[in-house]
Amino acid sequence: MRLYSLSVLYKGDPKVHLLKAAYDVSTFNFFQRSSVQEFMTFTSQLIAERSALGSRASVKEQEYLCHVYVRSDGLAGVVIADNEYPQRVCFTLLDKVLDEFSRQVSKMDWPSGSPATISYSALDGYLSKYQVPTP
Question: How many domains does the chain have?
Fold first, then answer.
């Protein structure tokens, strides 16, 4: 069971853009890591873009399961995990991260934010903490 990516995005008009993300590509070959990370970023944006406000979904993409939660305020979270990782734990993690992110980062920064301008450092910690899910 593995988590590979945890992303916070903003579903604005007309496009979805990445606010902050954390990746664990340590299980991939060194030369594949950057392309795997790009794939995960692209897939996260695509899934958030295709999901309605206020919805949750799990989408299979290649050998991964992508779990998306788009809040009604446009803040979205995506977890990319392997097929064995429990879905319920992914949505619990997304709830927790999006609630905390919305408390720490001003809503005014969401439409124009980017990974370089948003200061929210908890994603890497959550990604490593949730590698081993507790039922």
Answer: 1
